[in-house]
Amino acid sequence: MSTLITGILLAITFIIFVVYAMKGGNLTVGFFVMAVTWTIIGLVPPTKAIKEIFTEPVLNYGKTAAYIIFGSWFGRVLVDTGIAGSISRRTEKVGRKSPVIATILIALVTALIFTSSYGVGSAIAVGVILFPIMFSMGVPKNVAVSVFTMSIGAAMYVNNVLFVQFQVFFPGVKWGAHYQRFGFAAMAVQMVIVILFILAHAKKIKNGRPVIVTSEEEQKEAPKEVSVWTYFLPVLPVALSIFLKWDSIPALLIAIILAFLLTGQMRHYKNFVMMMNDTAKTAISDIAGLLIMLFVLTMFQQAAVHAMSSFAPIFKTIIPDSKVLLVIIIAILAPLAYFRGPLMLYGAGAATAAIFIGTGMFNPYFLYGLLVVPSMMGVSADITQSWNLWSVQYAKLDTKTFLLTGLGWAWAATIINEILALILL
Question: Which residue from 8, 130, 156, 213 has the least number of CB within 10 angstroms?
Answer without folding.
Answer: 8
